[in-house]
Design a protein that fits this description.
By secondary structure, this protein is mainly α. Helix content is about 70%, strand content about 0%. α5 runs antiparallel to α18, α12 runs antiparallel to α17 and α12 runs parallel beside α19. The protein is globular and about 50 Å long.
Length: about 450
């Protein structure tokens, strides 16, 4: 019989003890799981924004077709952050019950279904309901992306966050650039132009299907302890974490100042992003830019996130304080909005590039979510809190822009509002970028 394990005093265990023991190489099944998760992350990320930016490119046509006023169109552009806030908060509970991969798979199915139903809507209410279904899938996937990265790639958070952020930016820009030309090819029917993106969503479902039952972690348990491995080298399912003697339950995340700073930063950057995605093509069109060019300009803004979304997370993980990156991105936004106010058509390409750089605060926020907690369970709680509260903060922005545009008769006041929001974004982002975790504040 094997020897009985000795009883150890937890105070005598060194933190580095687990690292000193050699870890066998993952079995082929484990390696294929990581490959499948990587492919799934990329395809899922490609589908996290086309439902929004494709609508932004055709907002005028949709508003006319469904007989919307400017205020109602503003409500439509506020639906994404509302859905992200309402449904995103459910992601941790769903992930605990079904596993994060199963929830993301269900999220991809919801996106596909919503995009398929939206073209058949005959009124504003039905259109909003179909959009909300797609956005519900996006919401839970938004929250669980950092969780899955922390779970399967605990030693490559920056690289994997950069990879799926880059894919997210690519999907966003492709939908912005191609929706209008695609609609023209399909006979000018905006319904077909929006519905075509369901094809991409269908592809995103496939890699998650084999992962639905994969509830074992390849990295660490929710308590942060290493997961055991079977004799074959394959990861075994984590056991329920046991708290050491004398420890207490984790402090509620809403009592963390860092969590609130990160939530406010997330909310302000989301406000700017959804105002941009929902209204920037219309700003350019009202300035005399053709509709197809306005869509391309939005695509330029979004495509800036493709290279930068990979570089910024890697850079952020190498810095003790992410404040300088926050300030640099915010400054680009201030200059871009100022230019959009003074010469919207004359310097359109420059402003599109600068606002695209500014929008890369999103992958930075996701990276900081992964860095501001030591454990997988902490990242789940922080991701749900920061994103849900953040999206709640962002809800009034697009709606307010629509109201101000309708009642002021121009874009001067709305653009001034957009520029003004960059200042508090830099302040709270600098606070969120400090080298500490939510566990430090417990």
């Amino acid at each position: 019989m094997p020897d009985e394990p000795q009883t150890l005093d937890p105070t005598t265990i060194r933190p580095a003890a687990a690292a000193e023991r050699p870890t066998p190489a993952p079995a082929p099944a484990a390696r294929w799981t990581l490959v499948l998760v990587s492919v799934g992350l990329v395809l899922a990320a490609l589908n996290l924004r086309p439902a929004i930016t494709s609508l932004g490119a055709l907002l005028e046509e949709v508003s006319t077709g469904l007989h919307m006023s400017g205020t109602v169109a503003g409500v439509l552009t506020s639906v994404p952050p509302l859905c992200f806030a309402v449904f995103g908060i459910t992601a941790p509970r769903l992930a605990r019950r079904f596993g994060p991969t199963a929830v993301v798979c269900a999220g991809m199915v919801a996106i596909l279904t919503g995009l398929l139903l939206r073209p058949f809507a005959t009124g504003t209410a039905a259109f909003l309901a179909a959009s909300a279904l797609a956005l519900m899938g996006i919401a839970v996937s938004n929250v669980l992306m950092p969780v899955i990265v922390k779970r399967y790639f605990p030693d490559r958070i920056g690289s994997m966050t950069g990879l799926y952020s880059m894919a997210l930016a690519l999907g966003t820009s492709l939908a912005a650039a191609l929706t209008v030309p695609l609609t023209d090819v399909l006979g000018g029917d905006w319904r077909l132009g929006l519905g075509a993106w369901a094809t991409v969503a269908a592809l995103a479902v496939l890699p998650w299907l084999p992962l639905v039952r994969d509830r074992a972690s390849t990295g660490r348990t929710e308590s942060g302890a290493p997961v055991g491995r079977a004799a074959t080298g394959a990861p075994t399912a984590p056991t329920a974490p046991t708290a050491p003697a004398g420890t207490t339950a984790p402090r509620p995340v809403f009592r963390s100042r860092t969590a609130w700073a990160l939530a406010c930063f997330f909310g302000l950057q989301a406000t700017g992003a959804y105002i941009t995605m929902g209204w920037m093509p219309q700003i350019f069109r009202d300035a005399g830019v053709p509709a197809s060019t306005a869509g391309v300009l939005l695509a330029v803004t979004m495509v800036m996130g493709v290279p930068l979304a990979f570089v910024i997370p890697r850079l952020a993980t190498r810095m003790r304080h992410q404040g300088p990156i926050v300030v640099a991105l915010g400054t680009c936004g201030l200059v871009g909005y100022t230019g959009l106010l003074l010469a919207p058509a004359g310097g359109a390409w420059v402003w599109a590039v600068l606002l695209g750089v500014s929008n890369c605060a999103f992958p930075l926020a996701l990276t900081m979510i992964g860095m501001r907690s030591r454990t997988g369970a902490g990242v789940v709680r922080l991701s749900a809190f920061a994103q849900s509260v953040g999206y709640l903060i962002s809800i009034p922005g697009p709606l307010l822009v629509g109201v101000l545009y309708q009642h002021s008769g121009g874009w001067g006041v709305p653009i001034a509002l957009m520029a003004g929001l960059m200042v508090p974004q830099m302040v709270v982002g600098t606070l969120a970028g400090r080298d500490r975790t939510i566990e430090d504040e417990s």
